[in-house]
Amino acid sequence: MKKSHVTTTINGEPVEFLCEPQQTLLDVLRDELNLTGSKEGCSSGDCGACSVIMDGRVVCTCLALGVEAEGRSIDTIEGMAEGETLHPLQRWFLEEAALQCGFCTPGFLVAAKALLDRNPDPTETEVRYWLAGNLCRCTGYDKIVRAVLSAGAEMRGQ
Amino acid sequence: MDGQTRDFKWIGKRTVRPDGVDKVTGRANFGADFSLPGMLVGKVLRSPHAHARILSIDTGKARVLPGVKAVITAADLPDIPSEEAHFGEDPTDFRYVSHNVMARGKALYDGHVVAAVAATSEAIAEAALGLIEVEYDILPHVLDVEDAMKPDAPLVIEDLITQGITPTPKKPSNIAKRIQYDLGDIAAGFKKADVVIKRRFTTKPVHQGYIEPHAVVASTSEDGQSLVWCSSQGHFMVRASCAKLLGLDVSQLRVMPAEIGGGFGGKVTVYQEPLAVLMSRKTGRPVKMVMSREEVFRGTGPTSGSVMTVKIGATKKGKITAAEATLAFQAGAYPGSPVGLGCMTAFAPYDLENVKTVGYDVVVNRPKATAYRAPGAPLAAFAAESVLDELAKALNIAPLELREKNAAREGTQAPYGPRFGVIGYVATLQALRDHPHYMAPLGPNQGRGIASGFWMNFGGQSSAVINVNEDGTVVVTLGHPDIGGSRASMALMAAEVLGIDITKVRAIIGDTHSIGLSDITGGSKVTFASGMAVVKAANDVTGQLRARAAMIWEVDADGVVWEDGHAVASSTNVGEFEPLSLAQIAAMAAKTGGPISGHASINAKGAGPGFGTHICDVEVDRETGRVTVVRYTAIQDAGRAIHPSYVEGQLQGGAAQGIGWALNEEYVYGDDGRLQNPGFLDYRMPVASDLPMIDTVIVEVPNPNHPFGVRGVGEVPIVPPLAAVANAIEDAIGVRMTDLPMSPPRILAALEDKL
Amino acid sequence: MVLTNELGNQFAGGETKVEVQAKNVRQLIRALEERYPGMGPELEAGMAVAIDGEIYADPFMEPIGPDSEVYFLPRIGGG
Amino acid sequence: MNAMRYEAPGSIDEVVALLAAADGTARVLAGGTDLLVQMQSGLFKPGLIVDVKKIAEATTITAEDDGFRIGAAVCGAELGEHTALKEAWPGVVEAAELIGSVQIQARASLGGNLCNASPAADSVPALIAAGAICSIAGPKGRREAPAREIATGPGKTSLRKGEIVVSIHLPAQSPRSSDAYLRFIPRTEMDIAVVGAAVSLSLDENGLCSAARVVLGAIAPTALLVAEAADALNGSPVDDAALERLATAARAACRPIDDKRGTVEYRTKVAGVLARRATGIALERARRK
After folding, report:
1. Is the CB of residue C54 less than 8 Å away from at least one CB of chain B?
2. Taking CA atoms, which of A135, B109, B551, B595 is between 20 and 30 Å from D122?
């Protein structure tokens, strides 16, 4: 079966890849491009562990086709830090122990970044409803929500 | 090294976990993140029937499909004898483990593996599964524990004879085991009671719900050496299980611990790992097997569903005179439910004279039950703590006061026999009484419930190695997989004993070839047992450092002590010497005898039991039956919190799992015995917007048997929530819910019955 | 010392309170095997032992005092 | 090996041509949040996927004779960010925004939700209550059909072979009118509706209900327009008595099934409760208009 050639932008850099039409974007990121930071928890859009930001919106890559990346801009967890300096969200997740096993962490960080980009000063409830698509079984969400609120405060210069 | 009293430099600090940066940048490698050149994809074929005899399996067409490199069935695995398996787990039997990994003769549940293939791509592997023709003789099935206990019930395992009954029964049954614990005289106890409450409870199986599906990569070289990368709660357990199931020496298997994406007890056994190793040996190529979420729900162990009866009697003044429980747990397709642990823990927080607990371990046509965080205790506590609450109301005594009147203390005899040493249960009750939550006002349709929980915690085998590098930095290698942050705690303990800055300490998890045997991560034992091993290894290092300093100073080693990270002359008559830092001594290591490395391999004893008391406020929508948790506080005795953030994380995570268990999580089976909700959409675990912040209070009543007073904390937090939520619902709408989950339809029905 | 109810039924005709002379766990198991044939292997295979409140998962030579309280328990696991 | 072909044409005509030529296992891809779940779970493997996200008409919201024309592939998040649409039809927007998580919201479309024809679809009751009209393109050209006629049963639609919904038109909102949508799920997010209730209503000058539409979801093979419930409101001040009649009518209309998400008895009871509550919200919004 002839593979499709896709040109896209990942973490700000031009990327080309070949993929089967039925391959999901998640399979492409992990198996073709070795970006294993996005995780597969359910392949049905119910756990959020595979979240990336595509054209400014946080999406589940298990529910998108690799070929749909053509001409789009994708930001994965691997692109969140600027070289050596971690993004404030990454720092606050570490600072406030907002992760234990860490499997859901990439999805949470990417989703939280999309939130703060759109709503710099969210309430606790707004954070909880925005992150409702990201399942975590270790933390009970408490420290994750606090870390997002703390990072938001820092990014607002408070 | 008396670590009990003096204030600490590192213990108790909220440092960043050593594995943290890799996890927040996506670099951390979990089970499915490994791949090797020439790797094949492995897939399993699962029986679609609740109960069926396997008449024949025709793999002919599958074998010849281009790209298929191996097809295996039970015939390819040795038919191993019964043998007890011990990895710090409830004892199971290797023969049953083998049958669960690959069905032999009978497929006992919907999702039971009957064959496996390895192919050059996932698509080809999927196609190959479609070509395997299995002839089944479909048998009547049984799912419910009470139905399975009936004499005429279909037999899941034809030759299963109940243990623990004398004389030994002749007729096989689905009851694998009967267990009983007694204390005092139960009948006399109930006679002395002014008020007796008896209630029947039922619960459904629930899954651990880890977000990472099981994943393994196995690669075998021509000399028969297999390398295995997998996420599990015990890579030594994986090694031992694969060796036993495949008839190999353990040294032929090197198991590398990937980061583990949650386990909660569900990854203390093997599923695909032996199949991946076997297929890599047959093909000479690496084989990767990753479960889909549907497979995790259909094929891996939830904890037991149950039917329970609890009866408690007390005097008017609130002294419990007798407590009795009968617990029947589903074990799934093979014996081994945690009913024994349920019996031991049901009444453990209380000082009781007369106790009788009877447990039945019952096999049914469901996936084999596996441990789930304090296995058996949340169920038993749901029943016992609910009846206690009802008793308090009947006696017109506050639920907290009733617990205070009967609280277990040092010297109290546990329902399962031995007397408690130093324990902190009363301290948790006091902390609850002092907490603002206890007296906070409640709104309309709101209610408040409290409940307590216990877990004996566990020690077991643990190994640690501390290598001092030439620049004075240190690497601590451990043998237990780290899920909840144990690397952070180990680094803190090593830094404390060695007296060096935490930034100089790295903590890693060694693979099975590079560290001594260590039991599974579970039983809340890692910080306790590994901590002991790390402290012993660190003391081994400081001993060597003192000897090296003595050599440098040309004095007798006894004249040198270790203080604040330096070798110091014990007194002036030993000599006037500038203290030597660890780094200074390390720099001279070559001259003074070679690299400095501390070792410890122990069987940690003296695990301190953990107690917790939770308080929960709920609001009930009377028109739809929906329950919302509006406030939650978890209080627990940790002995000593090495890393407070991760102790809080255990309390919060356990509470959230308990709340999900109480309100919406359940396995839904059709009449055909097939699982209807194998996915996160309809297996409803709490999401972020379902929960409030979960406040925590860490009580510290040090465990005298641990250098820093540590008690295990991982499992107690899931024990109280089921009853805390049930008691809060009763307080809100005056309805005693005795069946889990307390989902909206059941609450609405109960409200209507009450009208 | 006190046997679990299960052991008592199976080997000791229902009796669970037993007086035995032994200095450590190994001697205790041997003495019990003599008095109740068949119990020894059962104890060694899968039982933990509690001596004066202390639980030992893999008992062997642990000392037992003259008036120690000893319990045999199933191995405690965890998740 | 039935490999799949993917096409992303630039115009509706190309889409129609592709679908007409397909061997029948073709599917349209907008957000894909239902389609890919079905593909991943092995339910079926389409031979052809036609992605409509490059076609302007399907991906834009335009004001049209002071109503709104919403592209069938516009995602829920975009609806939520369209203040004029949210002002006119808050019920439709909140229904679309309830579909799944934020990640799903970034992809899930009204066209997809409508054509997937799940009895529990969240946006469909609100579209029907709002009187939405679908613009359909097919081999025989364009036609229009009310949203109510699209779904004919679980997973079945009235679309003929090769037809697709290109856009959905919401009529102009009349004065003193508004709508609302509520659904019941055990958790606060992420579940499929156990029951859904959409209400749109108008008031006359002295506050009596002059027009109403009440549509229930997940209680019948398709979303159900309940005339008797609307009659309970028409001409009334939408007081408790009217709301009680509405709830009774809503319950009477229910023909739900027992499944892992809800029992017949439970869905029927909650349908009455949600219909009342949704009417209350729509009433309060209408009074403010």
Report:
1. yes
2. A135
